[in-house]
Write a structure and sequence with these properties.
alpha/beta, elongated, 17 helices, single chain
């Protein structure tokens, strides 16, 4: 198949030359779309006919010569080849500025004319393909750059989430930026009415010099540049190029300026870390040794990074505040528990003495009242013990006195202690166990675990039977306490072993929400596990698994 004829527009104000060109081009296999004699006509025909090439006479009649017409046609993406007989140097320089695709001298040779036209069209097509390739490469590079930035943000978010320590988080923020985003990274935070350098990182480890300079020459709070300005206004700042004028506006004296110049700073961005509507910190990123420069896109990226850093910084601060609050609470619980134990013990001793006296007097009126008081005092003592255990566990002071003993009589003795309480609740207690099951554990702590589980089973069992199953083999010991009461909703199953967590309303059921937490920590201190299976309305089963040689002495 033959290639389509090349479409040529001839722009020539001499009719004889124009007709000669039309005849020659047609004979050579080209299609002449038109012949015109002025610049405006040429532009109009290019817009209408979209030729492959324009043969343009430099000297045209009218107010617009061929060079001016060619310059406008160039922006329509159509190649121009000049026709010229003679022109002065100034005219030729003007012609060259329009970037023509060739020249044909009058009088023209047919072969020369054909070669110049074919080369012009070929060059133009090659240039268009090259430009398209460059655009595609630029588009791919932009997409890849955005993907790299997205990956960087994802990695940054992961790194920032690894710690809730405030200083570790601040150091992570500056380390993340170097060297990909900066040669220097500094983080300043508010401190009183001023600012404090919280973290500094340099690609080549030269942090000491900057720390010393900032210590000697702290930036003025009203400085119209850098972190004072950013933290004061909450607006990000881009310094695309550090000129001597900018450095002089930052420096407080000649020595300060000299030290700034030694840093060879090239460009800088500074972005605020906004926490709950307040500029709490400023992240400064600077290029120096790498000789790179920042632009508007980098400022946008810096703000995106700052937003994630602000979240991490806020989380770390909130966690620190929570830790302080928990520490104060635990300290209060510890002091309060110790202070309560003495008067409770005294009350218990006095009530026991009154109970003995009432029995000697055979007082049917006093004995029930004293017994009720004793039960309430015992309940208070139990709560105080739990509070003390919580503080010991939090301080890592849960010690185990491990010994080898038969678990069966211990479990049966605990069940007997709850016989009266179970009878009052309308529940029967059923024990399923071998006659002998030897294990190693802290006897009193094991008693505490079984007591907690059995107490809960009676409390939430709805007056239905409670089954206590004790079994074991060569590798493990297992205790299961199962009730058939109200059960536990699925959303609470993962939380009920935490401190002060409750699966039911405290209005209908008493307690502090500490029993299962203490149970879990005691079991874990023995190297075991505790789990719960429950269906709302069908009861719950708590299972303790302990290794045969359970327990380890020392803190939990």
């Amino acid at each position: 198949m033959n290639a389509p004829a090349q479409k040529i527009l001839v722009v020539e104000d001499e009719n004889i030359v124009a007709m000669d060109l039309r005849t020659t081009l047609t004979r050579l296999g080209s299609e002449v779309v038109d012949t015109v004699g002025t610049g405006p006509q040429a532009i109009e025909q290019v817009e209408q006919r979209q030729p492959d090439l324009v043969l343009m006479d430099i000297q045209l009649r009218g107010y617009m010569d061929g060079i001016e017409a060619a310059d406008r046609i160039r922006h329509l993406d159509v190649p121009v080849v000049y026709l010229t007989a003679f022109s002065d140097d100034a005219t030729l320089r003007r012609a060259r500025d329009t970037e023509p695709f060739g020249y044909v001298l009058k009088p023209f040779d047919d072969r020369e004319l054909q070669i110049v036209i074919e080369l012009g069209i070929h060059r133009h097509r090659a240039q268009k393909e090259h430009d398209q390739l460059l655009r595609e490469q630029a588009a791919r590079a932009a997409v890849e750059k955005e993907h790299r930035w997205s990956r960087f943000l994802a990695d940054a978010s992961e790194q920032l989430s690894k710690s809730l320590d405030v200083q570790v988080t601040l150091d992570t923020i500056t380390r993340l930026a170097v060297p990909d985003l900066a040669d220097w990274a500094a983080l300043h935070v508010r401190e009183g009415h001023g600012f404090k350098l919280a973290s500094l990182y340099h690609a080549h480890g030269n942090e000491g010099a900057v720390r010393e300079m900032l210590h000697r020459y702290p930036l003025a709070p009203d400085l119209p540049h850098a972190y004072p300005h950013v933290m004061r206004t909450g607006q990000a700042e881009l310094i695309p190029e550090f000129s001597e004028k900018v450095l002089a506006s930052i420096a407080s004296d000649a020595e300060n300026l000299r030290l700034l110049q030694l840093l060879t700073l090239k460009s800088q961005i500074c972005v605020p870390l906004i926490i709950r509507g307040e500029s709490r910190a400023a992240l400064t990123l600077a290029f120096a040794e790498s000789n790179r420069r920042y632009g508007p896109e980098d400022l946008t990226h810096g703000m995106q990074l700052a937003a994630r850093c602000a979240i991490a910084m806020e989380n770390a601060e909130l966690f620190h505040q929570a830790e302080q609050a928990v520490g104060l609470r635990d300290e209060f619980l510890s002091v309060a528990s110790h202070e309560l134990r003495t008067p409770l013990s005294t009350m218990q001793l006095v009530l026991q003495s009154l109970q003995r006296t009432a029995r000697k007097l055979d007082s049917d009126e006093l004995i029930p009242k004293i017994e009720r008081l004793l039960r309430q005092v015992s309940r208070l003592a139990e709560l105080v013990t739990k509070l003390l255990d919580v503080t010991r566990i939090g301080a890592g002071q849960l010690h185990l006195d491990v010994e080898e003993f038969d678990l069966v009589p211990v479990v049966r003795e605990i069940v007997e202690r709850f016989a009266e309480q179970a009878l009052s609740a309308g529940a029967s207690l059923r024990v399923h166990s071998p006659t002998l099951l030897i294990g190693r554990a802290d006897r009193s702590r094991f008693d505490q675990v079984v007591t907690n589980l059995l107490s809960n089973a009676i409390k939430f069992g709805g007056g239905k039977p409670v089954d206590i199953t004790l079994q074991g083999d060569a590798s493990r010991l297992q205790l299961t306490v199962r009730d058939h009461g109200i059960g536990i909703a699925p959303e609470y199953l993962a939380r009920i072993f935490n401190r002060f967590e409750r699966a039911v309303s405290s209005r209908h059921y008493g307690g502090l929400g500490l029993g299962l937490y203490i149970t879990r920590r005691i079991v874990e201190a023995h190297g075991g596990t505790v789990q719960v299976d429950s269906v709302p309305g069908a009861g719950a089963a708590f299972t303790i698994n302990l290794p045969v040689g359970a327990g380890r002495a020392g803190g939990a």
